[in-house]
Amino acid sequence: MQKFFELIPSGTNFNFVKNAKKFILLSIVLLITSIGAMIYNGATHGSVLNFGIDFQGGSTVRLALKQDAAVEVQQVRDALETLGYQGASALTVPDAENEVLIRVKEVHSIDPAQAKACEDAIAGYDKAKLVAFNYPPEGSSKIFLKFDAQPIYGEVEKILEAAGCEGKADKGTGKEGEFPVEVSLIGIGAKLQEQLDAHFGAGTVDHIVSSETVGAKVGNQLKRDGVQSLLYAIGFIFLYVMLRFDLRYAPGGIVALAHDALMVVGAFAITYKEFNLQTIAALLTVVGYSINDTIVVFDRIRERVALNREGDIEEITNTALNETLSRTILTSTTTMIVVLSIWLIGSGPIKDFAFALIIGLLVGTYSSLFIASPLFLWINKRFYGGEGHLLAVEREERAGTGTLLGSASAEEVDEISGKTVGEIRSEARGEIGAGEGEDEGAAEVADAGETAGGSVDDDAMVKKLLEKEREADGGGEQRSSRRRRRRPGA
Question: Residue 36: helix, strand or coil by DSSP?
Fold first, then answer.
């Protein structure tokens, strides 16, 4: 006989259901620890999580250094700290020689207070009277001015720079007779280039490859969008599980998803790693991966319940969990190998993305076994009386009364006997005819099916036949498998 490698030996019977309370308690402890870490971060760092530029606002600048500059990335980090950029980071750019990616929390825009100071300063310009000063909402990179006469741009730049609005003045657009001026505020990229050249020597920075800035308002909007995307994903998954199975399964799957997401967020709170848009993407990936594993477990539970409707639901669930254990561990392990490789080799945002996936894979596998399934059992016991399947009562009524069978068409198959309704009716009539005058039971069936007009009522006849069949199987006592019925009179 050919043998295959088994990670989990067949016949393994770990009692998941019995130990569920211990693991639920462990989850509660971890969740409390995560919340405690967020409170601590808020008290010490001013923010519950280390929000990145995407959520908090800031700038990302990619600079190309001179080939002969001989400046290491660590030297750039030290220079940023010396220049006063708190929380800044610098990373080498993969596959790009002598390029460095810098992230700082500063933006090139000015706040309303600075804008007012600049307006007051330029209002004192004596060669042209200021008619209008327009600075759009926070995050803008331009100031729009209007004068009653043509100003000298260089003088305007010096006045604004002294007031804290450093930038380049140029002719704007306006109506005839107006003298508009647009002042483009110096971006953080240009500022960093100047500062690094001054720190390491002129010509250290060859050019600015790219420069991106996210304002505080945009960051807050991204926060809201990120949370909404996560809630929408969980909500639609709830609907899918509810339609794919029933309401007994859906709450367990959703609680498991929320548990996994909170665990990942808690890991970022404890380690104080940067929480950004890549982390939201990782959370959505974890949610999808986790529900996939949970669906496999639920499907096996439902399959087992269908095969043994009268068995103990907890034992059936435990058997199903053990049967899927090997598949669950193998799938998670192979995925974990890839994610660990990314985490070990990668750097910067991709490393944090891999970290989120590692935590998500661990808690996702764990929650499918110890969170989703126990909650399914609790809901089944609390709201459904612990029945193995919702259709169990309906089928018992069908077997006892024949009402559902009698109303069915002749081509439909009875799930209890495995025969079509037409075959059962024909068999009943044949049994009555063969035993007429000899079989007391057959006579009873005939009497039950005879109406006042002398015709035979199929529904009543079939009902009586099934009752006689059940009595012949053991005095009306239900057996564990209703499919193996003896033919009447056999």
Answer: helix
**Res 358 pLDDT > 90:** yes
Residue 398 covered by a domain: no
- Tens of pLDDT, residues 207-239: 878 767 666 666 677 788 888 888 888 888 888
Total count of domains within the chain? 4
Query: What is the rounded CA–CA span in Å between residue 210 and residue 102?
Result: 10
Both structure tokens of 72? 């290491």
Run of H or E including 119: helix 112-123
Task: Answer for the pair 425, 462: CB distance below 8 angstroms, yes or no.
Answer: yes
Q: 132: which 2 tokens?
A: 């209008």
Asked whether the predicted pLDDT for residue 396 surpasses 50, the reply is: no
Residue 5 neighbours by CB distance under 10 Å: 4
CATH code for position 83: 3.30.70.2040
Do 209 and 222 reside in the same domain of the chain? Answer: no
Provide the residue range defining the domain that includes 148.
112-186
**pLDDT classification of 294: cutoffs 50, 70, 90:** confident
Do residues 247 and 240 touch, judged by C-beta distance below 8 A?
A: no
Shared domain check, 466 and 372: no
The more confident residue out of 434 and 356 is 356
Q: 91 forms bridges with which residues in the sheet?
A: 101
Longest dimension (CA), the chain: 128
Tokens representing 372?
């989703």
Instruction: Determine the pLDDT at residue 448.
Output: 47
Sheet of 205-214, strands arranged across = 89-92, 99-104, 58-65, 205-214
Count other Cβ atoms within 10 Å, centred on residue 84. Answer: 9
- Go through the chain and tell me how many residues it has: 490
> Has residue 390 been placed in a domain?
no
Is residue 404 one of the residues assigned to a domain?
no
Taking only the tens place, the pLDDT of each residue in 412-461 is 555 555 555 556 555 554 544 444 444 445 445 444 444 443 334 444 54
- Among 276, 165, 167, which residue's Cα sits nearest to residue 214? 276
Give the separation between CA 282 and CA 188, rounded to whole angstroms.
29
Rounded to whole angstroms, how far apart are CA atoms 182 and 184? Answer: 6
Q: Which of 188-192, 265-269, 271-275 has the lowest mean pLDDT?
A: 188-192
CATH number of the domain enclosing 116: 3.30.1360
Give residue 291's pLDDT. Answer: 86
- The percentage of the chain sitting over the pLDDT mark of 90, rounded to a whole number, equals 9
The CA distance from 241 to 232, in Å, is: 14
* Calpha distance 238→220 (Å, rounded): 27
Q: Does residue 451 lie in a domain region?
A: yes
